[in-house]
UniProtKB/TrEMBL annotation:
GO terms for molecular function: oxidoreductase activity. It holds the Pfam family F420H2_quin_red. It comes from the Bacteria. This is Nitroreductase family deazaflavin-dependent oxidoreductase. InterPro entries: F420H2_quin_Rdtase, Split_barrel_FMN-bd. Gene3D superfamilies: Electron Transport, Fmn-binding Protein, Chain A. It comes from Paractinoplanes toevensis.
Amino acid sequence: MKAAWLGLLKHSLNRVTVPLARSGRGPFALVRHVGRRSGRPYETPLLLARLGDDFVAELTYGPDVDWYRNVVAAGHCQVITGGIVHEIDRIEILPADDGLRAFGNPAAVVLRLLRRRDFRLLHVATTQSGMP
Protein backbone atom coordinates (compact mmCIF):
# COMPACT_ATOMS: atom_id res chain seq x y z
CA MET A 1 0.00 0.00 0.00
CA LYS A 2 2.78 2.44 0.93
CA ALA A 3 4.66 1.74 -2.33
CA ALA A 4 1.49 2.36 -4.36
CA TRP A 5 0.85 5.65 -2.54
CA LEU A 6 4.44 6.83 -3.07
CA GLY A 7 4.23 5.89 -6.75
CA LEU A 8 1.03 7.89 -7.17
CA LEU A 9 2.63 10.92 -5.54
CA LYS A 10 5.81 10.60 -7.59
CA HIS A 11 3.97 10.47 -10.90
CA SER A 12 1.24 13.04 -10.22
CA LEU A 13 2.23 15.60 -7.60
CA ASN A 14 5.83 15.85 -8.80
CA ARG A 15 4.62 16.97 -12.25
CA VAL A 16 3.36 20.16 -10.60
CA THR A 17 5.94 20.69 -7.87
CA VAL A 18 9.13 20.11 -9.91
CA PRO A 19 8.44 23.02 -12.33
CA LEU A 20 7.47 25.24 -9.38
CA ALA A 21 10.69 24.40 -7.57
CA ARG A 22 12.78 24.95 -10.72
CA SER A 23 11.23 28.39 -11.19
CA GLY A 24 12.21 29.46 -7.69
CA ARG A 25 8.58 30.23 -6.84
CA GLY A 26 6.63 28.50 -4.13
CA PRO A 27 7.82 26.66 -1.04
CA PHE A 28 9.60 23.75 -2.73
CA ALA A 29 13.30 23.07 -3.15
CA LEU A 30 14.72 20.45 -5.49
CA VAL A 31 17.06 17.72 -4.38
CA ARG A 32 19.14 16.62 -7.37
CA HIS A 33 20.55 13.13 -6.90
CA VAL A 34 21.76 10.10 -8.87
CA GLY A 35 20.04 6.71 -8.78
CA ARG A 36 22.08 4.26 -6.73
CA ARG A 37 21.38 1.41 -9.16
CA SER A 38 20.47 3.11 -12.43
CA GLY A 39 23.00 5.95 -12.34
CA ARG A 40 20.26 8.21 -13.74
CA PRO A 41 19.91 11.80 -12.51
CA TYR A 42 16.73 12.64 -10.58
CA GLU A 43 15.13 15.77 -9.14
CA THR A 44 12.85 15.40 -6.13
CA PRO A 45 10.81 18.33 -4.79
CA LEU A 46 10.92 18.73 -1.01
CA LEU A 47 9.96 21.23 1.64
CA LEU A 48 13.20 22.10 3.42
CA ALA A 49 14.01 24.42 6.30
CA ARG A 50 17.23 26.38 6.76
CA LEU A 51 19.44 25.79 9.77
CA GLY A 52 22.32 28.22 9.50
CA ASP A 53 23.94 27.53 6.12
CA ASP A 54 22.50 24.00 5.97
CA PHE A 55 19.10 22.49 5.19
CA VAL A 56 16.75 20.31 7.23
CA ALA A 57 14.53 17.66 5.63
CA GLU A 58 11.64 15.93 7.38
CA LEU A 59 11.33 12.35 6.15
CA THR A 60 7.54 12.26 5.84
CA TYR A 61 7.56 8.77 4.32
CA GLY A 62 10.50 7.47 6.36
CA PRO A 63 14.10 6.68 5.42
CA ASP A 64 13.21 4.06 2.79
CA VAL A 65 12.29 6.56 0.06
CA ASP A 66 14.41 6.54 -3.09
CA TRP A 67 15.75 10.09 -2.93
CA TYR A 68 17.11 9.61 0.58
CA ARG A 69 18.58 6.18 -0.13
CA ASN A 70 20.25 7.57 -3.26
CA VAL A 71 21.80 10.48 -1.36
CA VAL A 72 23.05 8.21 1.43
CA ALA A 73 24.56 5.80 -1.12
CA ALA A 74 26.28 8.60 -3.06
CA GLY A 75 27.29 10.63 -0.01
CA HIS A 76 26.31 13.88 -1.73
CA CYS A 77 23.63 15.68 -3.73
CA GLN A 78 22.55 19.15 -4.72
CA VAL A 79 19.78 21.33 -3.31
CA ILE A 80 18.34 23.94 -5.64
CA THR A 81 16.33 26.68 -4.00
CA GLY A 82 15.49 30.12 -5.31
CA GLY A 83 17.55 29.35 -8.42
CA ILE A 84 20.72 28.77 -6.37
CA VAL A 85 22.51 25.41 -6.44
CA HIS A 86 23.92 24.26 -3.10
CA GLU A 87 26.34 21.33 -3.00
CA ILE A 88 25.52 18.93 -0.15
CA ASP A 89 28.55 16.97 1.04
CA ARG A 90 26.96 14.91 3.80
CA ILE A 91 23.66 14.07 5.43
CA GLU A 92 23.22 13.45 9.16
CA ILE A 93 20.46 12.36 11.49
CA LEU A 94 19.08 15.39 13.32
CA PRO A 95 17.34 15.14 16.71
CA ALA A 96 13.60 15.70 16.37
CA ASP A 97 13.56 18.77 18.62
CA ASP A 98 16.23 20.44 16.47
CA GLY A 99 14.35 19.55 13.29
CA LEU A 100 11.07 20.92 14.61
CA ARG A 101 12.80 24.10 15.74
CA ALA A 102 14.31 24.58 12.27
CA PHE A 103 10.88 24.45 10.63
CA GLY A 104 9.41 26.93 13.12
CA ASN A 105 5.73 27.58 13.71
CA PRO A 106 3.18 26.87 12.33
CA ALA A 107 4.94 24.01 10.46
CA ALA A 108 6.43 22.62 13.69
CA VAL A 109 2.98 22.48 15.30
CA VAL A 110 1.64 20.47 12.35
CA LEU A 111 4.69 18.17 12.36
CA ARG A 112 4.26 17.57 16.11
CA LEU A 113 0.57 16.76 15.67
CA LEU A 114 1.49 14.30 12.91
CA ARG A 115 4.17 12.82 15.22
CA ARG A 116 6.97 13.39 12.74
CA ARG A 117 10.33 12.49 14.26
CA ASP A 118 12.64 11.71 11.30
CA PHE A 119 14.75 14.74 10.40
CA ARG A 120 17.99 14.94 8.45
CA LEU A 121 20.56 17.70 8.22
CA LEU A 122 21.81 18.30 4.68
CA HIS A 123 25.21 19.90 5.17
CA VAL A 124 26.17 22.51 2.58
CA ALA A 125 29.77 22.08 1.40
CA THR A 126 32.07 24.97 2.22
CA THR A 127 33.59 24.75 -1.28
CA GLN A 128 31.09 24.37 -4.08
CA SER A 129 31.87 21.86 -6.82
CA GLY A 130 29.71 20.41 -9.58
CA MET A 131 27.93 17.06 -9.30
CA PRO A 132 27.81 14.84 -12.38
